[in-house]
Amino acid sequence: MKTILLCGGKGFRFLNTSLDLPKVLAPIGNKPILVHIMDYYARYGFNEFILCLGEHGTQIQRSIENEVDYPVTFLDTGLDTATGGRILMAKEAIKEDETFFVNYGDALGNVDLHALCKHHVESDVMATLTTYKPRSQYGVLTMDAKGRVSSFTEKPIVNDWINAGFFVFNAAIFDCIDPSENIEYSLFENLLKTKNLSAYKHSGFWKSMDTFKENQKLNDMWKQGKVPWA
Description:
By secondary structure, the chain is α/β, with parallel strands linked by helices. It is built from 6 helices and 14 strands. Strands 1, 4, 5, 6, 8, 11, 12 and 13 form an 8-stranded mixed beta sheet that branches. Strands 2-3 form a two-stranded antiparallel sheet. The longest helix has 12 residues. The two termini are 21 Å apart.
């Protein structure tokens, strides 16, 4: 199985930092977050990658070529292309009957990829996403009718499941993708209508890196030896 990694975004929320780097090249410990993701897939035996590049594409390609020795296809998918369009540009690298991974280039997790694939096959759907219950960014409280606080919980796990990436797609998905839309909108909404989307529940570690503060938190974990994705 090949893995398509989405690396073409502008990373607007990550721009106000002292790092003069694309977000996917921001280091966690001794290597870029993108390499951590590739290493994770490779440990499961999935070591063929397709990187959908856009902003800073040349810089990303040069860095990855120096960091890894996996088979990697680099695709220039444009500066402002939606994620649907980026994935469609990788179609020629995927066989007609092939199942493949898709993931973002800015989140780490210890998702069991073999269990994820098994769930996808057993669900008999075109697409599977990994879902996760994150912690709230804020403390949560309850109060009585007079406004007196009766309980307070610091950053509890929320009740809702979120899209955590780590997708598995069948090749038939290419016929359903609108190149002008992000997959999180039109594609998934259409798959819901035909009951062709399943969710794999992940209860282990998962952390996105949308901001420099989150990069610092991941680096703190690395320094403390708390690296569940490694």
